[in-house]
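Priority: medium. Attachment 1 of 2:
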C-alpha cells in the first residue's frame, strides 16, 4: 500500500515579506553569523532562537582543527538555550548560512540531519511545535511549521 506524506512550508522571496518579529530574528541570526568560528570551511552560519517569554538568544557554528569536534550553529544555540532556560518553550528558530564570500545565487541553508534530530528532541519535550526558518544571505527564506516536517519518521523517546 502506497502512502504519502506531504509537508507545507512557506517561501519568502525577500525578507521584506517577513513580520516584524521575523525580521528581528533574521537580523539577530545575521549578526551572530558574523561571529562564526569557521576557519576551515569558511561557511558561516548564524542562528537566533525566540523563547515564549520574548527573549532572543543567538549563536553560530564553532569549528575545530579536529574536524568532528566542531558544532553547527543550530546545536550551539539550542544547547545553550536548553542548558540555561530548561523550562522556557522555544517558539521560533531562524537560521542564516552561506559561504564567507557569498553569492546572490546561494540557496537557503537547511539544518543538517544531526541538528534536525536534536531539534526534534526539544520540540517533543516541550509538546509544542517550533517554527523554523532558514535562509541564505540573499534574503530568500523558507519557513516550516514544525521540526517534524524536516524529519519524517523521526526517532524519539516514545520508542525507548
Ligand atoms: N553548519 C551549520 O552550522 N549548520 C547547518 O545547518 C549546516 C552546516 C556548519 C557546520 C560547519 O561548521 C560548516 O557549516 C560547514 O559544514
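Attachment 2 of 2:
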Amino acid at each position: 500500500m502506497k502512502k504519502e506524506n506531504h509537508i507545507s512550508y512557506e517561501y519568502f522571496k525577500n525578507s521584506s515579506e517577513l513580520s516584524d518579529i521575523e525580521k528581528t530574528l533574521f537580523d539577530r541570526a545575521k549578526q551572530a553569523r558574523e561571529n562564526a568560528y569557521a576557519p576551515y570551511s569558511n561557511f558561516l552560519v548564524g542562528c537566533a532562537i525566540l523563547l515564549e517569554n520574548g527573549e532572543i538568544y543567538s549563536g553560530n557554528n564553532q569549528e575545530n582543527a579536529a574536524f568532528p569536534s566542531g558544532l553547527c550553529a543550530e546545536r550551539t544555540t539550542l544547547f545553550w538555550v536548553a542548558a540555561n532556560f530548561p523550562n522556557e518553550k522555544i517558539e521560533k528558530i531562524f537560521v542564516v548560512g552561506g559561504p564567507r564570500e557569498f553569492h546572490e545565487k546561494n540557496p537557503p541553508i537547511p539544518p543538517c540531519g544531526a541538528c534536525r534530530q536534536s531539534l526534534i528532541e526539544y520540540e517533543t519535550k516541550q509538546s509544542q511545535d517550533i517554527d523554523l526558518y532558514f535562509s541564505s544571505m540573499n534574503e530568500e527564506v523558507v519557513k516550516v511549521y514544525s521540526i517534524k516536517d524536516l524529519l519524517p519518521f523521526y526517532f524519539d523517546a516514545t520508542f525507548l
